Amino acid sequence: YISDTPTSIVSNLKNIGYTCVAMHPYYETGWSRNAVYPTMGFDETHFIDDFDQTKLLRKYITDQELYESIVERYESKKANEDLFIMSISMQNHGGYTEKYPNFNEQIRTLGASYSDANQYLSLLHESDKALEYLISYFQSVDDPVEIVFFGDHQPPLKNAFYEELYGKKLSERTTAEGLQQYAVPFFLWANYDIPEQNGVILSPNYLGVLTAQTAGLPLTGYMNFL
């Protein structure tokens, strides 16, 4: 559906001199990213062949490897080069039923009945450690840095696990309870002072506006409308 350059956070940042980089440690043909990303205006695209393919957890490149690549790109930037890096990780992609010799699951608190949830939560445990590395690194740099971290959906775990969380059959949920399964948390962190907020709920179309506001970037007319 992307056949010409759309107005987006990418084009907005390019208009004020940013270098825009897309990173995804998987195959470039997925969702036609190799065609869509350049059309969106990304100056650089990095796919699976640009990452160390020995750094695997289960069968996907780790979050740690992705974050180290972000740090490496930051450290190689030119003087006074402003960077926007959009990264889509692969480490925790479903499903969660197979066992892998290269993954020692650490979280087993939910018992054998929820083996997929145990694996997913164990993957989150590894993600937490990688994220600690990323934030710790950018805490110490001189440039102002903003990190926006969000997901696009909840994990496809067995219905029995979600029924355990709800305390009822999925068919017995209210509409409001059903919508909870389509909400994902996000956080926005910066290495400079920003207002601290908790429990912020918004839809993805507003996330770019919040990102720009927090970074002190100029807002377009459409962003001001939103």
Overview features:
226 residues, 37% helix
Overall description:
With 226 residues, this protein is an alpha/beta fold. It is 37% helix and 12% strand. The protein has helices spanning 9-15, 33-40, 63-75, 115-139, 159-166, 175-180, 204-215, 221-225, and strands at residues 19-23, 44-46, 56-57, 60-61, 83-87, 146-150, 186-190. The strands form three sheets. The chain has a three-stranded parallel beta sheet with strand order 2-1-5, sandwiched between helices. The protein has a two-stranded antiparallel sheet with strand order 3-4. It has a two-stranded antiparallel sheet with strand order 6-7. Helix 3 (63-75) packs parallel to helix 4 (115-139). The longest helix is centred in the middle third of the chain and has 25 residues, at 115-139. It is globular and about 55 Å long. The two termini are 23 Å apart.
Please give the largest β-sheet.
3 strands, parallel
- Straight-line distance between termini: 23 Å
Question: Please, how many helices?
Answer: 8
- Structural shape: globular
String of helices and strands: HEHEEEHEHEHHEHH
What's the gyration radius in Å?
A: 19 Å
Helix percentage range? 25-40%
Say how many strands there are.
7
Please list the strands of the largest sheet in the order they lie side by side: 2-1-5
Content-based structural category: alpha/beta
How much strand? 5-15%
**What is the overall pLDDT average?**
94
Poorly predicted ranges: none
